[in-house]
Write a structure and sequence with these properties.
The complex is a heterodimer. Chain A is mainly β. Chain A has a domain at about 1-85 and about 640-710. Chain A contains five helices and 33 strands. In chain A, strand 30 and strand 31 (about 655-670) form a beta hairpin. The longest helix of chain A is centred in the N-terminal third of the chain and has 23 residues, at about 1-25. Chain A is globular, with a radius of gyration of 31 Å. Chain B folds into three domains: about 15-70, no CATH class; about 90-180, no CATH class; about 190-260, no CATH class. By secondary structure, chain B is mainly α. Chain B is elongated and about 85 Å long. At the A-B interface, strand 9, strand 10, strand 11, strand 13 and strand 14 of A face helix 5, helix 9, helix 12, helix 13 and helix 14 of B.
């Protein structure tokens, strides 16, 4: 019956559009001021397996669809354009622009981006109010008394779709009151609504997930006044951003407890994202100087702040309330950024560039004194650090590059460069890091037959001021190892070769390698290597005919070291050391063909994409180990395939009928996130998850499409 | 196209198209030809706004050495011509930018006379095709299981990057440091928070690969292994989570692992949130 409805609809649409086509056909040679196109039809799909992942960011539901609509009216002085995609569906988009050439421009967009996480998600929790998650009292009592097990009550869980959506509205206005002056205003507001997977723990091994509400809005405003002529530019601007969260905390029942004690709790309360805002003013300018030189400068000063009311240390009624140092966060940071660039082209063969950049995140959040806090709402713990530690940093970055293009090889630039980054931090284990980078490249561009871009880079990062005392206080191994700040030697090589031996054939080759070594890292990440090889070819025998094939192979390897130890003698026992060797290999392939002129009046497009990943994490012990031999983790498998076939037959010059077919399939084996791990929501005796698992799927989607141009 | 007689050394666009008709026709479909806009080349000296005075070229029977022929010019000389107009807003930071210093120029990516894209006069039909011709490692990652909605058409390379130069790193379009770019969409993670997770505050890409990953939430490695790259403390952070733990359905490796309990890993506003449990 449903298919019959589609056929009727198509017939009606065909008839209606056919009638309007002749009336609107422009005479040959005329340039119509108004033009447009619409793609519409019906879509049908079949799915086996997970219905969510393939629709993660889109809406492929069956039904009539207006897939693409475009309209433009251009009378040379004024231009109006409007369009829409996927009308009426969750991923719909509408946009428009009105422009008076050289005077005024107004654009608008409404864009919906869905996020479909899971269709088979289940929960025992009910939500009587936003941010409140309750379990039936009888279940809590039964589980506490031991007369029930989670396995007994889990089947009562209700199924729901775990999804959210961003609705983004934006308006941009540019006014040009004088030839060299622009005044611009941008306003973007994004509402995010729906549900999000959120975990709440009540002590070790007990984990409960709830569908936390998403109901927040970000509003961003940007404005600028910019003057520029052929020699100079000056700009002043203001940017503001306000994030407002309607649900700033959640309260969640502990399914395992009905009564509060000083070591267990019937419910927990957790802070969510606080509402916040930022305000920034900025100015920029550039001026051209003799010898093809230019200086560009930029400065911005801003504040980031949030002052949300703080939730109490705990909602456990058996624990005496601990007074808050202050009732609100009073979190505040001053952010200052500056960039200065000087570049010069004193000789035709020589180019010089120097840049300095500073970014200062000056976190002025006052110290929040904490003597005792409540861990997971159920145990009073003495704070080791006596409160919060507002992290701040200043990053100074200097770069200088010089390139030389010999007259003998006019399209080739030889470049050498040096960079230095110095970061000063407050409240981090390493106070200062300095990274020096040297680089060289050869770039051949502008040659009709060969384009070559090859570069090498070596950098050395050194940190000083390791705060071993703090690490010791919190029970961490006192070594410099946090992989973003630890001492590191990095080598990188990349080569991109593009050959065009004849005008119709293109061949490209990419080789990129990188390795990070941390010679002094006693613990943590020690090595990280990556390799990328890609080869592709294009054949374009004529306008409207093209063939392409691309293949990529990537490998990623890592090695990190740890020590499985309790405090005391184990803490310094090297026989308890162990390593994780991570490895991933990814094959990516793509073939495509566009046959737009092979068959008269018919356009054929087809493509096939494959991404095949195998990853593994192997544990390795030392020769003199005193640890139990670990059981190997299974290999992780991720295979994603996507095929398209798109045929369009032109019934008339301005009217076409088409068929679109998409094939999507996903194979996955994931020991942590697959069906074997998350098939039950009561994955163990003390945890209740949402069942949001990585599942395989096969989707076939058909769309009968009619296209009308005017 | 020119109402007045051209100044000395110039011949006017009408003369140019007597030989270069195809180029004139192709240009007429682009914004460069919108003469009503005083900033366009056609409102100035027409074809010669970009190609330079043409009289010597015409007088020499089309001698190509007497006029600007962009394919034969050095990349930076091409950029200088384009930047004589395109020196504001999007393009203000071009000179000295990453692409400029790698000997790229405007015509590496854009075509004035033969664009293939709907917008921005690109040489390829889409940004992914264009950017991917050099940045293959990044575009390969877009095909991963976990990715931004680029394949779905909801984002494109320029949603995050400004290839013409920026005040940020990696040619990021918004803000002045990596995190400012990320929070322009993920504003909830801006804070500041009462308790900060230092690597997150310093750089989102310490843990996330925005171009795509086979790991959940675009992480650069699977958890708990990712967390164990830094956390080697007593007890559970430094424990081997092997297949025995998987079989026992330990939440420290099954599901979202460390983040299951340390949910507020991007920062917590709870006074009991020092370990991001609350």
């Amino acid at each position: 019956m449903q298919k019959f409805y589609y056929l009727i609809l198509v017939a009606v649409l065909l008839g209606r559009s056919g009638g309007s086509v002749l009336a609107q056909q422009p005479a040959a040679g005329d340039v119509a001021p108004a033009s447009g196109s619409v793609d519409f039809g019906v879509r049908m799909s079949s799915n086996t397996g997970d219905p969510a992942r393939n629709q993660r960011y889109r809406d492929l539901r069956d039904g009539p669809t207006v897939d693409r609509l475009r309209y433009t009216h251009d009378d040379k002085k004024w231009v109006f354009s409007a369009g829409a995609d996927h009308l009426g569906y969750r991923d719909q988009r509408y946009f428009g622009e009105l422009r008076q050439a050289g005077k005024f421009k107004l654009s608008f967009e409404w864009n919906q981006i869905p996020l479909f996480n899971s269709a088979g998600t289940r929960t025992l929790f009910t939500s009587p109010a936003p941010g409140e998650f309750r379990i039936d009292d009888s279940i809590q009592k039964g589980l506490e008394a031991g007369t029930l097990r989670l396995a007994d009550v889990a089947p009562q869980a209700l199924s729901f779709d775990l999804r959210s959506r961003r609705d983004i509205a934006s308006v941009n206005v540019v006014v040009t009151p004088a030839r060299n002056l622009d005044l611009s205003l941008k306003v973007k507001t994004t509402h995010r609504g729906g549900k999000q997977q959120w975990g709440v723990g009540f002590g070790f091994s007990n984990e409960f997930e709830v569908p936390a509400p998403l109901d927040n809005r970000s509003t961003d405003v940007g404005s600028a006044l910019e003057w520029a002529n052929t020699r100079a530019m000056v700009r002043v601007g203001y940017d503001g951003s306000w994030f407002t969260n309607q649900v700033e905390s959640i309260i969640v029942d502990n399914p395992l407890r009905f009564t509060d004690t000083t070591s267990a709790v019937s419910q927990g309360r957790m802070a969510l994202w606080p509402s916040s805002h930022s305000n920034t003013v900025n100015t920029a300018g550039s001026i051209k100087l003799p010898a093809h030189s230019q200086i560009t400068a930029y400065l911005s000063v801003g504040t980031w702040a949030q002052n949300a009311a703080l939730i109490p240390f705990t909602v456990n009624t058996a624990i005496a309330p601990i007074p808050l140092d202050r009732p609100t966060a009073e979190a505040d940071a001053r952010v200052t950024a500056m960039n200065y660039t000087a570049s010069s082209h004193p000789l035709r063969e020589v180019s010089l560039t120097a840049r300095f950049k500073r970014y200062n995140f000056d976190n002025r959040t006052p110290h929040f004194a904490i003597t005792n806090y409540v861990r997971t709402d159920q145990s009073v713990v003495t704070s080791l650090l006596g409160g919060n530690e507002p992290l701040g940093y200043v990053r100074d970055h200097f770069d200088a590059d010089a390139s030389y293009t010999p007259k003998a090889v006019p399209f080739t630039a030889f470049r050498v460069g040096f960079g230095r980054e110095e970061i000063e931090r407050t409240h981090r284990y390493v106070e200062t890091t300095r990274e020096n980078t040297v680089r060289a490249s050869v770039d051949v561009s502008g040659n009709a037959y060969v384009s070559l871009r090859t570069g090498v880079e070596r950098s050395m990062l050194k940190g000083t001021g390791l705060d071993e005392e703090v690490l010791d206080e919190i029970g961490e191994q006192a070594s410099l190892r946090q992989f973003d700040i630890s001492d590191r030697n990095r080598n990188r090589l990349s080569t991109i070769l593009q050959l065009t031996p004849i005008a119709t054939v293109g061949i490209n080759l990419t080789v990129a390698t990188g390795n990070d070594h941390r010679p002094d890292a006693a613990f943590g990440l020690q090595h990280l290597d990556n390799r990328t090889y890609a080869l592709g070819a294009d054949y374009v025998p004529s306008d409207g005919m093209s063939f392409g094939a691309n293949y990529g192979y990537e490998t990623y390897k890592s090695r990190q070291m740890s020590r499985q130890a309790a405090s005391g003698v184990q803490f310094t026992d090297p026989t308890r050391n162990w390593f994780t060797n991570g490895a991933e290999r990814v094959h990516t392939a793509n073939i495509s063909a566009d046959l737009l002129t092979l068959v008269p009046k018919t356009e054929l497009r087809m493509s096939y994409d494959l991404s095949r990943s195998r990853a593994r994490y192997d544990y390795v012990l030392t020769a003199d180990t005193t640890l139990v031999t670990p059981q190997p983790l299974p290999v992780l498998i991720n295979d994603l395939r996507h095929g398209t076939f798109d045929a369009r037959y032109r019934l008339r010059r301005d009217f076409a009928i088409g068929l679109v077919y998409w094939h999507d399939s996903y194979e996955v084996q994931d020991f942590a996130l697959g069906l074997s791990a998350l098939g039950r929501i009561d994955i163990n005796t003390g945890s209740l998850l949402l069942g949001n698992a990585y599942l395989p799927y096969t989707d076939n989607t058909f769309m009968l499409r009619l296209s009308y141009l005017w | 196209m020119q109402a007045q007689a051209p100044p000395p050394g110039y011949v006017g666009a009408d003369t140019c198209v007597t030989c270069h008709d195809a180029e004139g026709t192709s240009l007429s479909h682009t914004e460069h030809a919108r003469a009503v806009n005083p900033r366009t080349p056609m409102a100035g000296m027409g074809c010669e706004s970009c190609h330079g005075p043409g009289k010597a070229h015409v007088d020499a029977d089309g001698d190509v050495t007497k006029i600007r022929v962009f394919p034969k010019m050095a990349p930076r000389e091409v950029s200088q011509v384009c930047a004589s107009c395109h020196n504001r807003s999007e393009h203000a930071q071009w000179q000295g930018s990453a692409h400029d210093t790698r000997n790229l120029t405007c015509t590496t990516c854009h075509s004035v006379h033969d664009p293939k894209s709907e917008q921005a006069q690109l040489k390829k039909t889409s940004q992914i095709q264009l950017c991917g011709s050099c940045h293959r490692a990044q575009t390969l990652k877009l095909q991963r299981t976990n990715h931004m909605p680029v394949r779905e058409g909801k984002m494109e390379c320029t949603s995050c990057h400004n290839p013409h130069g920026s005040t940020n790193l990696k040619l990021l379009r918004t803000g002045n440091y990596i995190n400012e770019s990320c929070i322009s969409c993920h504003a909830e993670k801006r804070g500041p928070f009462l308790f900060e997770h230092p690597p997150g505050r310093e750089s989102c890409v310490t843990c996330h690969d925005p171009h795509g990953s086979t790991n959940e939430r675009l992480l650069v490695a699977k958890v708990p292994m990712l967390c164990q790259r830094c956390h080697i403390g007593t007890n559970h952070p430094s424990t081997i989570y092997d297949n025995a733990q998987v079989k026992n359905a330990s939440v420290r490796i099954v599901g979202r692992s460390c983040v299951s309990c340390h949910e507020n890993i991007h920062g917590s506003n709870s006074p009991s949130g020092n370990a991001f449990h609350r």
